[in-house]
Write a structure and sequence with these properties.
Length: 427
């Protein structure tokens, strides 16, 4: 039986869920904003929740859902007819309590030319979509947003992201804020489809994506893994929760805060090997995304194991590999640190940036520690998004755009120099 409603009937269910977790999952924030629910208003065979993600250097995974069985086939090509080529993939589904998902289709297409617009059609549908591949070389523009959710603020953030004409979106966890209500995953997929079907979205997990319920549903990340398949196998990872990829001279690493990260874990060993294989001649920039911040002067989410213990385990790996930037979410506010290592300013350490302010329903984390630590350069509690423009092998411009009366306002910006171009820093 498929659960069609938009809400579970009782607060008691949510209280039961909170009792099954520690405080990280039930943090009491300022009053929430209204959650938007986007209904499916087409027939059951129509594609919905379309999104794309990069696979390797020259392929793209097309993902979509239908309510009834349809072919997992993509017709695509460089002309609007989308008839030049075709590829077939796989169809899966999943169950979660009383919910049964639709037909989840995943098809990998390619090889594709860089910096090129492709048109595509899904299954038996005649509707045509299009996407643009990333450039082969610099410059490249990343949109960056965390803790996106689906509220009125999310709508504003998505509009501003679309106006930025980014080449690829990077999202450090907490996608839909479905929080066990699986229909909200469907709503989220429909909400982001206009952008996510046109540029690759590369994502990793946050605490709101775990969705593990003691006794009722023991498997974590069920919806995330089924709906948002990332190219983990291509990077030698054994899990969809952590992976890496190269794009336009940048090596991007996605880590999982809510899976094992101890030195004897699969994630740690994979990260260690991945960092050793980076060719800075090919990818002079290295960017890491992880949900729970390792540096944080906000009063929210202090002292959590996912932050403190993961930093203890992995910070040395990132420092020794000359990682340039670490993007995080979780804290619903913005904060940029100087280059830092072991809690002190270090010109050869990464710049840590918290951007967990995409538009979640829980409200902003408005209280910061006072006095402000010297390593914290800029902090502000506002919804918004970031843009990382990697201009060349040595320079990139980071800017954070806050949502101010529905208009994007650049509130913080800084030029960054890659550590691979700094002769004082040696890997």
């Amino acid at each position: 039986m498929r659960f069609k409603g938009t809400h579970f009937p009782g607060l008691a269910f949510l209280i039961l869920v909170c009792l099954g977790f520690d405080a990280v999952y039930c943090y009491n924030r300022p009053p929430p904003r209204k959650t938007i629910f986007v209904p499916h208003d087409h027939d059951d065979s129509s594609p919905q929740q379309v999104h794309i993600s990069q696979v390797g250097q020259d392929k793209m995974r097309i993902s979509w859902i239908t309510e009834s069985p349809t072919p997992a086939t993509v017709h695509y090509g460089p002309s609007p007819s989308a008839n030049a080529l075709s590829a077939t993939g796989i169809t899966t589904s999943y169950h979660y309590a009383l919910y049964e998902s639709g037909e989840i289709h995943n098809v990998v297409i390619g090889p594709l030319r860089p910096n090129t617009v492709y048109y595509y059609r899904l299954g038996d549908s005649e509707k045509t979509y299009n996407f643009k591949t990333a450039p082969a070389h610099f410059p490249i523009m990343f949109g960056v947003v965390g803790d996106l959710g689906q509220t009125e603020w999310t709508v504003s953030t998505l509009k501003h992201l679309g106006d930025s004409n980014y080449d690829m979106l990077l999202l450090p966890g907490d996608l839909s804020y479905a929080d066990f209500l699986q229909n909200l995953w469907d709503s989220f997929g429909r909400l982001v489809e206009p952008l996510a079907s046109q540029r690759p979205w590369m994502v990793t997990t946050g605490n709101h994506d775990v969705e593990k319920i003691p006794v009722v549903h023991e498997e974590p990340f069920t919806a995330y893994n089924a709906r948002w398949q990332m190219p983990f196998e291509e990077s030698g990872s054994d899990s969809n929760l952590y992976y890496s990829f190269d794009v336009s001279g940048v090596h991007v690493i996605m880590l999982g805060s809510y899976t094992d990260f101890a030195p004897d874990s699969s994630q740690y060993k994979w990260l260690q090997g991945d960092l050793q294989k980076i060719n800075r001649g090919k990818t002079p920039w290295v960017v890491v995304l992880v949900h729970a911040p390792w540096y944080n002067s906000n009063q929210a989410h202090q002292g959590e194991a996912e932050s403190v213990d993961m930093k203890t385990a992995m910070e040395g790996l990132l420092y020794n590999a000359l990682v340039d930037v670490v993007f995080t979410g979780h804290v619903h506010a913005y904060e940029r640190f100087t280059r830092v290592y072991k809690d002190k300013g270090d010109n050869c350490g990464p710049v840590h940036i918290t951007i967990g302010d995409g538009g979640n329903r829980e409200g902003l984390a408005t209280r910061y520690q006072d006095p402000k630590p010297e390593i914290s350069i800029f902090r502000e509690a506002s919804f918004g998004h970031g843009v990382l423009e990697v201009v060349n092998a040595s320079h990139a411009l980071w800017s954070w755009h806050k949502n101010d009366n529905e208009e994007p306002v650049v509130s913080d910006s800084v030029w960054l120099t890659s550590l691979s171009s700094n002769p004082a820093c040696k890997a």
